[in-house]
Amino acid sequence: MIREKHRPVMSRTTVFALSFAFFLLSCAAQEYAFKGRPEVPGIPDRSLADSLNIADGRMPEYRIGIGDKMEVDFLYNKDLNRYVKVRPDGRISLPYVGDVDAEGMTPTGLDSLLTMKFREILASPEIAVIVTETEGNNIYVLGEVRFPGAIEIKTRMTLLEAITVAGGFLPTGNLKSVIVISKRSETEATATKVNVRRILDKGKYGDDILLARYDIVYVPSSFINNVDIFVDQFFTKTVYNMGIGLMGWQNFIRERVY
């Protein structure tokens, strides 16, 4: 797959920065409910996730989000069993250990963390974390697409499918610099530049990528050379300063984007 990490240097003009802010503001103002998929020239009218050989074909492991409901089950200590909901601050509360950061973790990762914490109290804790209900299972497609905004995902969705559901590229979109930002924790995220033009021109749809909850897809109007600068402008100069809220990113504090 054609993915370019953030290495070269990008030139940014004031006009582009203001245009960038305008698009994000308009995107966050309302969320669209999409039913069906419009036909978009250049993108096959079929389910890419189900019919194509996309990487290893597996969805990224689910990551817990704000509002998710979970059952924390103790195999040998049933009196400690709890049904919990992830609070707006990304934490859950459990007896003896208090508040625990849950947002952004996988169920397996939270299971391991709780097991470690309860080892200080119990001899042999056997804990299972079961997500029973999810909240706001969205991704975001922003920038130079026909219908920018949030898209609810109920099944596997690829980058090209998400752009198709958003109405396809505008003529002003630069398909060689599509950015995908994925949240890994409350302080870390990955930012990948994808050359969608090459995927479409060469018909290598197996190089399409699967998206995960809260992923941000941004289609720029000009070529992005330096992803570091782009991410800095996206979060510090646009999302934070303008007060734009994206569900799943409310508590994100950017310390490391790689």
Plain-language structure description:
The protein has 258 residues and is an alpha+beta fold. 23% of the residues lie in helices and 22% in strands. The chain contains 6 helices and 12 strands. It has helices at 14-29, 48-51, 107-118, 159-165, 196-202, 227-240; strands spanning 3-4, 69-74, 82-85, 91-94, 98-101, 127-133, 138-143, 149-152, 178-183, 188-194, 216-219, 256-257. Strands 1, 7, 8, 9, 10, 11 and 12 form a 7-stranded mixed β-sheet that branches. α1 crosses α6. The chain is elongated, with a radius of gyration of 20 Å. The model is unreliable at 1-56 (pLDDT under 50).
Descriptive terms for the model:
258 residues; alpha+beta; 12 strands
Draw up the topology in text.
Elements: E1 3-4, H1 14-29, H2 48-51, E2 69-74, E3 82-85, E4 91-94, E5 98-101, H3 107-118, E6 127-133, E7 138-143, E8 149-152, H4 159-165, E9 178-183, E10 188-194, H5 196-202, E11 216-219, H6 227-240, E12 256-257
Parallel strand pairs: 7-11, 10-12
Antiparallel strand pairs: 1-10, 2-3, 2-6, 4-5, 7-8, 9-10, 9-11
